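My current task is to audit a protein record that another person submitted. What it holds is a sequence and that sequence's fold in token form. Thanks in advance; the entry in question is below.
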Amino acid sequence: MNAPSEWADKDFYGDLGVASSASAEDIKKAYRKLARENHPDNNPGDTAAENRFKKAASAYDVLSDDKKRKEYDQLKAMLRGGGFGGFGGSGGAGFPGGFRSSSRPGPQTDADFSDIFGGSRGGFSQDGGINDIFGGIFNRGGGPGRAARPTRGADVETDITLDFKEAAKGTTIPLELSGEAPCTTCHGSGSKSGKTTTCSTCSGTGFVSEQRGAFGMSQPCTTCGGTGQHIPDPCATCNGRGTVHRRRTITVRIPAGVIDGQKVRLAGQGEAGPNGTPAGDLFVNVNVRPDDVFSRSGDDLEVVVPVSFAELALGDTVTVPTLDNPVKVKVPAGTPDGRTLRVRGRGIPKRGGEAGDLLVTVQVKVPGKLDDAATSALRTYAQAERDSGFNPRSGWAGN
């Protein structure tokens, strides 16, 4: 799962080969092209291609999501500007002009700590500032009084393995998960009666202030755990948390056309949030088993069909399997060995109800042993072939 804390050293736009101003459609096209070119099925044993495939999938996971993309862009812009690390030199990193204490007397010309960290107990700045930036990028904080509070449950990541046809057509599978789930006794509130009161220690802000020399520091309130709320009658089952650790089974719909290594995000299916806050997300890493008959190239389904020499030379109609019912494919007379025939709309399903194509490659199967009648007939044909002037090596290797 792509976590904001792991984005700092990533170049998602570079991994997809697009500009940071690229449209959502350009990002989708770039990802699909890279996925087709570098898919492990098309590059067996090629570690470099596999790594490019994984990078493209990770980049698309972030850049195809408007919220994640905005957070990623904010983080990158912040890092380009110097970031927030350290307060050394004449100016703190990322803050031109350095810092000074607002409580120190005398003339002050540098950036005021009260301007940066704010004067309230609830956070760094009353009107946004650092608290809002970090809240947006490093998940789900916000303005004063909210940054210390857990605002949603933890994300969960799990792996599944599907057969080729299940991945191509989509499937529904049960998943057994273990983690925080809403307490059934208090219905997730953490309170026997379902009522809470404002924490008297922090006045509901979730923070308490402490004066350290010239500076005032804020830290999460230990009385309420940063929630800003007091539970007068904690639930005995969950000890006031609103969640309990248990196993649960959910039914997950995997969309048609997923590829090996793809990550499917299921919003709100992660761990329950404390005291009734929203649940996190579930990220399902999909592994796809290779198939004995089919492979794929993007949305096209590929199959190699064994044929006889006579079927290619004289032409015939062969039965070809698909993801559903078999289809009849006409092989024109004189078709060369290895030619690929295209059947429209019988490939991998796409969004919107369309599907890719079925690519049928014909491959001559030579009999290992012939009976006397077949041998005699074939010798007669071979002589007739020579008499007609046909030379299979004409124009090859100097012939």
